[in-house]
Design goal:
alpha/beta; Rossmann fold; 2 domains; seven-stranded parallel β-sheet; five-stranded parallel β-sheet; 18 helices; 44% helix
């Protein structure tokens, strides 16, 4: 079977596909990923075929994450990306030719337009709740009420509008009817579109009302494989093994003035609380990155390597990073920027595995709030629950469930 996946987003969007593709290649399938050049090495390292898609991954991060405040900002970001990369539809069509099936996520919705033109079956994958349910939502803190389901109205009503704004002219030019309603995305040629959520059901239980075409599979990753071959520098090894275990603080690649301030505030909070920490922060000035017996600064490091060696983690709450932290049994503090990160931050708190998230989309948190949250994180009260969740997640095999479903496509 030839499967072509299209990925537009961050490393957290691309890496699970590469993990899935790696296993499918081992089973004799032809798995290819169309993505931006920034991710070529990540994909090819997994023995998956890389296909070039124009675009700058840093712009995706800036337009769709860092600049995200409202749904209008998200639309504006998508339109900027489209203008910057006029050849992306030609590249997508070329990549999909000869495929038995194609896969796409939230920011690669144009793949569906290309698939409609070529008559190729689709698979959708999402890293956060997208299909209507009473149970939970990105847009409300309520659970199990009709009000939760109603919060999905902006998806079901907005997606057709968004699709026609971005791709309506292209569809008309290619003789494809415009998108009339949300059912266009959930059905194709009279059949329900196979849909994956590469998330642990611990955090996102499958709604019994959903059909058999929707799978909450568990995470798509091989943490042990990702960390294989990594050699820790002697200074870090000494820091990790001498004295108390540190926390690991990571801010990701997003950059802005507000995030630069957040990183400095967090550094001040760590110093004030004297919490031992390994810090990965790309916007802290080099002059401030001075290793001490309480702080150690790192650049790139596999999360699957460092997370099992620390007592707790602090990060922005992206789906995959979040999953690796829970797999490692780490109490977690999430400082979310946008999209699914707020959902995972509050879900971890609701499950008892970490403090309430410090939401910063509208207003940056204070040093005092950071100090309180960090102190709470290392208090010990979340340790047992984090270990319990780890044991549950380690029993899942998201890649295996996804492959069975893909191979079952007739």
């Amino acid at each position: 079977m030839r499967i072509t996946a299209v990925a537009v987003g961050t490393r957290g969007d691309v890496n699970p596909l590469a993990e899935l593709g790696s296993e499918m290649v081992k089973r004799g399938h032809d798995f290819r990923i169309l993505a931006q050049e920034d991710f070529r090495s990540l994909i090819e390292k997994k023995n998956v075929t890389y296909l070039h898609l124009d675009g700058d991954a840093d712009h995706v991060m800036k337009y769709l994450v860092t600049n995200y405040r409202t749904s209008l900002d998200f639309l504006t970001g998508l339109m900027k990306l489209k203008r910057e990369n006029p050849a992306f539809m030609d590249q997508t069509l070329e990549a999909l030719k000869g495929s038995d099936v194609c896969m796409y996520g939230t920011c690669a919705g144009f793949t569906r337009d290309a698939a409609d033109k070529l008559g190729i079956p689709c698979i959708r994958y999402f890293y956060s709740p997208y299909d209507r349910t009473d149970q939970y939502s990105l847009y409300t803190v309520e659970h199990g009420t009709p009000a939760v389901a109603k919060s999905y109205d902006n998806i079901t009503g907005g997606m057709p509008i968004l699709s026609n704004l971005l791709m309506g002219k292209w569809r008309r030019k290619n003789g494809i009817p415009k998108v009339k309603n949300f059912d266009h995305y959930t059905e194709q040629n009279g059949r329900k579109v196979l849909t994956f959520y590469p998330v642990s059901p611990v955090l996102m239980p499958k709604d019994p009302k959903w059909g058999s075409h929707i799978h909450v599979t568990g995470y798509w990753y091989h943490p042990e494989e990702d960390s294989a071959g990594y050699h820790m520098e002697p200074g870090l090894e000494q820091f990790l093994t001498e004295g108390e275990k540190p926390v690991f603080v990571a801010f990701g690649k997003a950059e802005s003035k507000a995030l630069a301030k957040l990183q400095m505030l967090t550094l001040e909070a760590l110093k004030a609380t004297r919490i031992k920490a390994v810090v990965q922060a790309f916007q802290i000035p080099e002059a401030e990155k001075k290793n001490t017996n309480k702080l150690y600064f790192v650049d790139k490091i596999p999360y699957s390597y460092i997370f099992p060696k620390v007592k707790a983690v602090v990060h922005h709450g992206g789906c995959t990073t979040n999953g690796i932290g829970l797999w490692a049994g780490c109490p977690t503090l999430v400082i979310p920027l946008a999209l699914d990160q707020w959902y995972y931050g509050r879900t971890i708190h609701e499950l008892g595995a970490g403090p309430a998230p410090l939401y910063i989309r509208k207003k940056l948190c204070t040093k005092e709030q950071l100090q309180a949250a960090l102190t709470d994180l290392v208090s010990g009260k979340y340790d047992r629950r984090a270990k319990q969740l780890s044991a549950e997640i380690r029993q899942e095999n998201g890649i295996e469930e996804a492959i069975r479903a893909i191979e079952g496509i007739q």
